[in-house]
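Priority: low. Protein: Carboxypeptidase-like regulatory domain-containing protein. Input follows.
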Amino acid sequence: MKHIISACFFLFSLCMSAQSVTVTVDQNTTLKEFFKQIESQTDFKFAFTDQIDTNKKYFTKKSTFTTIEIEKLISELNQTSIVQFSIVGNNIFVKQKSQTQKPAKKKNKLTGRIFDDERQPVIGANVFIKELETGVVTDVNGNYSIEVPDGNYTVQVSYVGFKNEEKRVSVTDDNKVNFNIDPDSQQLGEVIVMNNKAADIKATQMSVNKLSMQEIKKIPVAMGEPDPLKSILTLPGVTNAGEASSGFNVRGGAADQNLILLDGAPVYADSHMFGFFSIFNADIVNGLDLYKGGIPSKFGGRVSSVLDVTQQTGDFEEYKVNGGIGIISSRLLVQGPLEKEKGSFILSGRASYAHLFMKLADNNNSAMFYDLNAKLNYRFNAKNTLSFSGYFGNDLFDINDRFASTYGSTMGILNWKHKFTDRLNSNLSVFYSDYRFNLEIPIESFKWDSNIASYGLKYNWNFQQSEKFKINYGIDGLYYNFNPGVVKPTSSDSQFNYMQLDKKYALESSAFVDFENQITEKLTFRYGLRYSMFLRLGDETISTYENGQAVVYNPLYKIYEEGTPNGSISYGKGKTISNFNNFEPRAALSYAFNDETSIKASYNRMAQYIHILSNTQSPLPMSIWTPSGPFTKPQLLDQYAMGYFRNFKDGDYSLETELFYKNVQNRIDYINGADILANNNIEQVILNGKARSYGMELLFRKNTGVFTGWVSYTLSRAEQKTPGRTPEEPGVANGDWYLSGYDKLHNLSIVGSYELNPKWSFNGNFTLQSGQPVTYANGYYEMGGIHIPNYSLRNENRLPLFHHLDVAATYTPKPDKKKGWQSYWVFSLYNIYNRKNAASMSFTTNEDTGANETRRLSIFGIVPGVSYNFKF
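Result:
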């Protein structure tokens, strides 16, 4: 009888284990959810100890089992799950795995680099392991790194506008696999709009926009030349002072509050020809990142934004040439190997020739620019790479030999990248950067020269403890030499005497650490701290004033006036005049509801120790940089931001919305009628105030299809406040908040690109902004028969609404030609409906009638452009 019972039990167990089920589990599946899937399809029940939490997620990867027998399912799960399943009769027992069980499979590092057809590293390419259903995105150098156990895998690389590339890889140890991907001319709709196809849902970084050169070259601009700097004006939160103006303003900040980096080195001016062109040559630029908030700890020194521009790496295998011929300028680029697979170079140059046409028309005026870019790379071995980047640019401008000006920048940076281990690498840089401005007025027989020069060192380390925990830390130092100007007479009868304005010297140093921690599958936290220190150094003599006030208030005339020095203090070379230090905490977090939706929040404090002296909204070439000191305090920013991010239809569409609030302490303000040029005691016209800005940004993108593009909209307010220092003083604008010169209540951009066929593509850009705040005359008074305007409170009025529509067409005669001479034409119309946007308003008296007049100055009407571009 006992044997009959045992046989029946064996047959019953065999029948039970032969039952088949269909089950799906992943890292987000709890045991309770798994139990329900089994119990709804079989007669099995689960048993477990108190140590097992059924609401916990015990599965380590995504797996789908279709019509699989229970016994085989349990065997498969026991290999990857962190709990142990066992079948006893019609029960499945669950218990914790013992410490003596077989250890998990060894993890190996699969690394490599992704290159495009130009041998340029591809930023933001997707690297996907099919068998593990997991992947990563390449970094700014085109590198990827992913942990995988021993096994054979299919690695797929994909990037918008390029053919997918697959390789079969066998992994038994750490392995390096590089990929080369080719453009897909058949996928007309696969047009690159951002470096990444859609919004990065899980990354903590927010308030950052990335633009690729493919995208930048499609945005129509005046004169028909692609311009990386003008392209960022189509992004939310970014404006400038108007057409043909230099600088840009981010979230209500001033132009000097932007840190502009070229391959990691700072540059102090961003434009040619008073703002008509930027200093960035579109041919050699690889891409740019604009950080508007949530700025990582490795960046510092400015309180508004960071524009990080990178240049291309030269081709390591073939020599290549490309360039373009435009209406007023042309450009040429050459690249190739110094030593195949080890060294490369890339050289690029631009020059304008509008002055030649002026000469032909018997016009003695002249305006031209030229610049040169270079980058050299050498790979000593797999762990050491040395590179050099350089830039030199110059502008020449003169009017009938009565006025002449030259200005420009020089930059050079030497960079050594070293890989200690697969987890730890470093980046050491030394650099030099300067900006110089020279002015000569022959009829007055004098010259004026000024410049800022800086010497710096950066040493950064990156440590990746795991895919979920990374540390970035480093130090940097920057030495400044400010020359505000030297006046030189050019003839013996000049009314000017030689005068050297006081040179200024300063040392800025900092250390930072930044942690990125993926706490759960949904929550990622980045936090860091930057400590900065600034020393204002001699050799310099500082004036002293009664009550320490370089600016005094005259209650009789109700105006601020320059104070009178009552003495001075001399500081020897290298002696400390002033010192400042600040802790700058940073924090950001991201919570992903799923793979398509997340919310993010960030906070950052930043300090800025150098300032541009300019009381105009757009910085001019003669704008002078000055360091913080006894009368000029460092600017301090606190910025808060939060946002909602969503991808639709697998990233075909994306939405990014953000709210921000910025508060800046110690923002420089100027007394009415301030004389800044060649002022050796600039503290006599400066007041310290504060600024704030707040608003909402929206960016909606269509990323794929024959029609791509984006809509960006910003609703914001930027204000400044400079109260009186005593109850009797009114301050500026009666000490109330007044509109900053960078306030744009509404800012709308619509950018579209349509691929008609392989030969023709069309692009458009519509911009609409609120007029810039200005101060209008609100009345006149007469003195000696002359009408003198009386002005309202500062920035109480606005210029008229600013808007224009630009279109461009690109024609490629032989789109399938991939070797030899390749070319394309770009035809553009800037401001197609000839809108006369106001650059400024002036209040004058008509010489004929004596009537008071208001005159509008406009820079551009409709501007046609054409350029011929080639490569071979």
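The chain has six helices and 58 strands. Confidence is low (pLDDT under 50) at residues 1-17, 99-103, 185-197.
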